[in-house]
Amino acid sequence: MKKVDLLLGIFVTGIWGANFSVIKLGLGALDPFLLTSLRFTFCFLPLIFFVKKPDVRLSIIALYGLLFGVGLWGIVNLGIYLGLSAGIASLILQFSAFFTIIFATFIFGERISKSQIAGMSVAFAGLISILAVTDGSVSTMGAALVIFGAICWSGCNIIVRKNKPANMLAFIVWSSLFSAMPLFLITFLVKGLEPFHGLLQALNGMAVFSIMFQSYITTIFGYWIWNSLMKKYPASSVAPLSLFVPVSGLITSWLVFDERIAFGKIIAAILILSGMAIFIYAKSIEQYFGDRIARRDPPRSGAP
């Protein structure tokens, strides 16, 4: 991966980590599904009138929109609403990196090296260790919902990798239409008209900031960059970058909500970062040790 693309990927994942705290700010005023539906409404309005439909079948755009809007962010927002802290949600969602790589192995035949498996194992240990936290920031139901969201995110990554839309901005804008409409319907079916009646009163400055940040910074900008990387590089090279999200998520949650970063969380974050580094630089690590072994044991000529 080119250095500029690597830096862009890390920058975007830093924004995504902060986004979990921004979501929690919005949930203080709005229903989780209504907040998510408003996020995607502003992603496609008014841009959909100025951006041509992408060169992908409408069924694929709709599937991506459903997985991304409802399966990923609608469910993740519900998990946070049910008590999961912003920082812990950002950690658990990173299971998506592993699901993406596993799916890509079966669908695209991408090879996973031994060093990459080692990196995944280290990062996986960090994610598992967070479930042992007992400071009240981990909700079992919330954690299960976010894991489901991680599976949906991996599905989104595979859709992009397989279809490779030429215009990523158009793909995000049009797919947001298929995110927003089902979310409005779910809000109505679950809560009736109640969330809509008090919408104008609930839209305080913090809620508006949350919606705008999620719409334009996190989704339009962030996923434009991310999906462009997914189209350009193998999934096994891009997906691990998302493991930086929890580091940003924990720091932001500490700054905004004074979430206690206990020793166990610090160890988990270190394991995740270490695993990400091993995974990203797996080829360089293998080449380095391979060259050292070759210099130490040069091939012998002649009969034994």
TrEMBL record:
<feature type="domain" description="EamA">
    <location>
        <begin position="141"/>
        <end position="280"/>
    </location>
</feature>
<keyword id="KW-0812">Transmembrane</keyword>
<feature type="transmembrane region" description="Helical">
    <location>
        <begin position="167"/>
        <end position="190"/>
    </location>
</feature>
<dbReference type="InterPro" id="IPR000620">
    <property type="entry name" value="EamA_dom"/>
</dbReference>
<protein>
    <recommendedName>
        <fullName>EamA domain-containing protein</fullName>
    </recommendedName>
</protein>
<dbReference type="InterPro" id="IPR037185">
    <property type="entry name" value="EmrE-like"/>
</dbReference>
<keyword id="KW-0472">Membrane</keyword>
<dbReference type="InterPro" id="IPR050638">
    <property type="entry name" value="AA-Vitamin_Transporters"/>
</dbReference>
<feature type="transmembrane region" description="Helical">
    <location>
        <begin position="263"/>
        <end position="282"/>
    </location>
</feature>
<feature type="transmembrane region" description="Helical">
    <location>
        <begin position="58"/>
        <end position="82"/>
    </location>
</feature>
<keyword id="KW-1133">Transmembrane helix</keyword>
<feature type="domain" description="EamA">
    <location>
        <begin position="7"/>
        <end position="131"/>
    </location>
</feature>
<feature type="transmembrane region" description="Helical">
    <location>
        <begin position="7"/>
        <end position="27"/>
    </location>
</feature>
<feature type="transmembrane region" description="Helical">
    <location>
        <begin position="88"/>
        <end position="108"/>
    </location>
</feature>
<feature type="transmembrane region" description="Helical">
    <location>
        <begin position="140"/>
        <end position="160"/>
    </location>
</feature>
<dbReference type="Pfam" id="PF00892">
    <property type="entry name" value="EamA"/>
</dbReference>
<feature type="transmembrane region" description="Helical">
    <location>
        <begin position="117"/>
        <end position="134"/>
    </location>
</feature>
<feature type="transmembrane region" description="Helical">
    <location>
        <begin position="33"/>
        <end position="51"/>
    </location>
</feature>
<feature type="transmembrane region" description="Helical">
    <location>
        <begin position="202"/>
        <end position="226"/>
    </location>
</feature>
<feature type="transmembrane region" description="Helical">
    <location>
        <begin position="238"/>
        <end position="257"/>
    </location>
</feature>
<dbReference type="GO" id="GO:0016020">
    <property type="term" value="C:membrane"/>
</dbReference>
